[in-house]
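All the exercises in this workshop are built on plain-text protein records. An example says more than a description, so a record of this kind follows:
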Amino acid sequence: MSAPPPVLTRLTGRLGRITLNRPRAINALTTEMVTIMQQALDLWAASDRVRTVLITGAGERGLCAGGDIRAIHADAVSGGSASLDFWAREYRLNATIARYRKPIVAWMDGLVMGGGIGISAHAGIRIVTERSRLSMPEVGIGFHPDIGGSWLLSHAPGQVGTHLALTGTSIGAADAVHAGLADHFVPAARLPRLAGALAGADAASAVASHALAVPEGELAAGREWIDRCYAADSVPEILDRLRSDPAPAARAAAAEIAAKSPTALVVTLRSLRTAAGLPSLEAALEQEYRLSAAMLRSADFAEGVRAQLIDKDRSPRWKPADLAGVDIDTIAGYFAPTADDLDLTATGPR
C-alpha cells in the first residue's frame, strides 16, 4: 500500500486548500512538500476558479513543526548539499506566499515552529487559536531564525522580536498578534465552519465573522523591560541588562539565552539588526540563505541537533563555550556575499 501524499491539495468552491499531511511528524517540511506547495500556488495564481487559498495542517498537534531537522542534520554531518536545495526552495515559497495576489489564509493552530512560521506568518490573513504555540527556537540548535524570520522579528514592535529570537521562547495567540506574527483569534471549534465560509465568501469578511477579541497576553505587559534590555548593541550587553533588571521575567530570559549557542546568538542579533534596514523580505531571505549555508557546516549546528533531537541529553557542548570566545571575524564571514548566494529578484510578483 502506497504512502499517503505529504501534502493534499484540492478545490472546494472558490477555495484552494493546501493541507500538510505528515501528522506523525507534526507536518515537518521536506523538499517534496515545499515543491508541491509551490506548484499548487503557481497553478492557482493563474486560475480564475480560485479566489482564496487556505493553508492548514493534518492532525491535532499543530500546523507545522518546521523543517525536517533530522534530515538536515544527516546532510550536514555527511557533507551533503541537499539542505541547500531545500532552503532555496523553501525561501522561494516564503517569498511567494508573502507577495501572492490572492488572499492566503493560514491556520496557525497548535504547534507552529520555524519553517511552520515561514508558510503561515507571511500569509495575508493569519489565524491563531487557543491551542496555538508559536516559536523560532533555532538558537537552541546552533542555527538562526530563517524563513524570513529575521524580517518578521526585526519588524515586530519595539524589541519584542529580539526577545523572541534570542530566547527561542514559545508564545500563544495573544502574544503572536502583539508580535505581528498573526492577525485574528478564532476558537478552534469554529475553524470547520470558517473553512465552509471561505469556499464561497470574501476571505476578509468570512474571517471577520468568525473571529473574537484576542485574549490578554504577556508580551505587552513586559514591553518596558523588553524594550529597555534588548536595545543594547551586543549579546553580552543584553545579558547584563537582563540580569540586573528587577523584573523576574527579565532574569528568566537571561537564563534562557545563556543556555543557547553563543555563536548562534551573535549571528542572530546581527541578522535581525541588519534585516531591519534591508529593503524587502526577499533581501532578508537572501541574507538568511547565506547564513544557513555557513551554519550548516558549523560545529554548533550538528551538536545542537544531537543534544536536542537525537541523543536528547539537552546538554550541548558549544564551541566556543561562551560569548567571549566568539570570533567576530568568523561571524563577519558568515555575512559575506558568495558566488552561490540565493537570488530571489528573478522571481516576479504572484
User: Anything to note?
Assistant: The CA atoms of residues 30 and 300 lie 22 Å apart. The radius of gyration is 20 Å. The chain has one domain: 7-335. The first helix runs from residue 31 to 45.
